[in-house]
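Local shape tokens:
==================
===
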Amino acid sequence: MIIAGYTRNDDSPKQFSALLLGAYKDGRLQYVGKVGTGFNDKQQKEMIAQFKPLIIDKAPFEEAPDYNKPSRFRRNPPHASATWLKPQLVCEINFAEVTDEGVFRHPSFLAMREDKNAKEVVIEIASDTEKVTETPKGTALKDVVKPPEKLDGKTLLNPTEKTQCKKLQGHELKFTNLDKVYWPDEKITKRDMLNYYYQVAPYILPYLKDRPESMNRHPGGIKGPSFYQKDVTGKVPDWMTTYRYHSNDEPEDKNYLVANEEATLLYMANLGAIEINPWSSTTNNPDNPTWCIVDLDPADKTTFDQVIEAALVTKSVLDELGVPCYPKTSGSTGIHIYIPFGGKYTYEQSKEFARIIVTLVHDQIPEFTSLERAIKSRNGKMYLDFLQNRPGATLAAPYSVRPKPGATISMPLHWEEVKPGLKMSDFTIFNAMSQERPFQWLPDKAFLYIIIQLPANYLA
């Protein structure tokens, strides 16, 4: 949307209270509503600096909007003065729906879009789609999953040279030690892993975009020593995207690497980052995760069929609440279940929501599940982990390789696949790009407003 102005409520300490938005229709700028959430203090200061040179005396619309009009929810809104801007800046928002009046309902600011030309921002008109038909019962999974148009088994690196230089997206990358065996038992090399990430890049990158990375590096392969690297200050090429972040637990700022493009993904893998571990939130909204995670973490005596049963119970709990969820194998021993939040809630709210869900699940299958964080207190039972929903906590991304035997993948699943007989070894770097894989998984822009009625004992 085009930023056509902003408001500031009386006595507000903020730089501004809301952005006034517009879009073109038939060549004329139309008002489409305002957005007052989604930006932090730092963003507001940066945005105000961009606004100042663009301030004008009159509204850029043909018809000035009554932006402060009372609604049935808010009879006496605070007085807010408007500052109008030349319609040159563009931002991206989330919203629930568009009203009959053409105004966005429940909008939330996501980011400035300097790559967009304001003149090209137009009001979109809905058009009819092709008729949707239900899939007949008994249809095989391969008939449901639409494969990519072309899977040609392309590889980046040739099978002979130990060191190779390749140009990706205009950047020269040097790949080294390609014959190094990363999985000794299976004789799987670093070259094999890099070729996999080259093939899967179009599918994994949507789940990495704008997300700081915590690199778990295994320079000697899965049986050698490993270490985590978060701060890349002065250690990566200048063209790579980084994100400066200050944690209350750390004395200094850190610059995290952000894998927004194929070249950065391959650069990380060449460093020995076998698995890719993004945040649950993005740099645009770092304090609000875009998904909530339930991590089913089995104990040594837990069977994988019990993990599957716990996953299905989790789905039934969420189905009863009307909340969509998406499963994937961990690539190690468990299953991860993702719930789309779209940055609408804080990490604390996400954690508490997951706590409620796993409590309801545990009540149904207490004989082999536990909510105890301490391993010795679990008595050999599977841990229903809700604490992955913390700032800075990471899990292996969808389609990420894991440093586990067989070069297994953290593979997104259809719920009909989550059934006895499923094995972690079903998905490796050698079959993940088969004709039924990969596929569209967790929606990129989905979000929920969750209203839940729980039994009184849980509210306590």
Summary: Residues 2-120 form a domain with the OB fold (Dihydrolipoamide Acetyltransferase, E2P) fold (CATH 2.40.50.140). The chain has a mean pLDDT of 86. Residues 347-364 form the longest helix (18 residues).
